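Supplementary Methods, section 5.1.

A reviewer requested that the exact input to the structure prediction be made available. We therefore reproduce it here, unchanged from the version used in the analyses.
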Amino acid sequence: MADTQPDVAEAAAGELTVASLEATLQKFFAKADKQAEERFERLESQFETLNVILAEHTKELESQRKIATSLQAQMKAVGITTAKHDEMLKQLLDKITSQEDRMRRENLRIRNLKEGEEQGNALAYLMRSFPKWFPEMAGNPPAHRIGPPRKSPDKPRTMILKCLRFTDRDRILQSARKNDVEVAGQKLRFTPDFSDATAQRRRPCYPVMDRARRTGLSSFSAVSCCHLN
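The structure derived from this sequence is encoded token-by-token as follows.
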């Protein structure tokens, strides 16, 4: 009988210890569950906030994309309009150039004539000289030098004369190609009088035309294309 009492006491103590441990573990797990739940709630709240921010950014990016698309469309339209305006401007400039060239088609440029050779009266000088240079030509063409007098004898000003008809100008050019005209040891050059725009387009042809003249060929230029005969 005496041996069983300690066993009962030990069993009761063991049951108390297990019960106490279970209670302690339950409190620990309950506290841990509560803390975990609170953390999950905070994380969930943070995720919701991030989702709201992400949605706002997505909306803003979509708005920016639409603005960029609209700007691209506007720029494309502006580019098309600018190209049309450039083409219209080019056509207008071409018309002005064509009209200016038509106004100058009776004009003839005389190059390499020494300064002062005409002694201040270009018309009288040409009236005396033309019958010598071109016996087949008649008439009294008005003429003048371009720009103020130059001191350098190496670069005399160009003289411009106006023929009665552009056919007269062409006859002079043809005659000048066949027969050289020299004054005071300088070979004169007779060229058409073009507008600045046409002269600019012809300029790349000058080296080719000069080589053609040196080899005895005649040349003429149509706008920006050189042709050799």
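The radius of gyration is 51 Å. These observations are discussed further in the main text.
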